[in-house]
Amino acid sequence: MKKTIVYPGLDIPCELREIRSKNISLTIYPNNRIIIRHPKRVTKSFIFDFLEERKQWVKQQFEKNKKENPKKIEFETNENFPIFGKQRTLRWSKEEESHLTALSLVLSEKRIKSPKGREKYAKDFLKTLLEDFVKPIIQEKTRFIGTKKYEYRIRTMRSLWGSCSYDNKLTFNLGLIHCPENVIRYVVAHEVSHTKEHNHSNRFWDLVNTLDPNYEAAEEWIKQNGRKVLCYLN
């Protein structure tokens, strides 16, 4: 179970995470989620004092996020957001099947099972689009480096683009659906490389470079745009 406290004076929930480091830190994510990482034996009063000292900075970061980051997608008609890096306009349609065009994301109203089911259906369709794109890439790259045993899934994550467990369970962020195709390919290459090297050593990066020689351009795109893109579904 996650441990949380309420930020004094701001009434904002903060997640607490114990770490081995002797230092305490505070991270604010694009969706204004706050995580406090602290040594195991630190007292609550010390944490509250730490937060009080940074209250003004936190307020400034919230205002910055509000100005710089896009709103979460509501999945309403005529909303505009990128899919595979290209802006599309959402249209709810009476058509039987949902589909993606050069300019639009067309979602079938006939597929909605309840009045509140739009968001779930829309996310499920985006997940299908992303899986159709990444599945052959995963197969190609795992085959190339000789990884035979692995699993993968796609889900919404707040801060990670992907992950790979020690038993080669790959997880990809649904938010990748908004990224350009070269960025998606890089994230797949990155996580597949972890099936052989569970670290970020030179051998790991050599493997990434083998799977995606242009990975640095994708990394730069993530640095410039990643925070904003993570806001779309969180």
Automatic annotation (TrEMBL):
Domain of life: Bacteria
Segments forming a coiled coil: none
Positions of the YgjP-like metallopeptidase domain: 22-225
Matches recorded under CDD domains: M48_yhfN_like (cd07344)
Pfam families recorded: YgjP-like
Cross-referenced InterPro entries: UTP_pyrophosphatase-like, YgjP-like_metallopeptidase
Descriptive protein name: M48 family peptidase
Protein source organism: Leptospira idonii
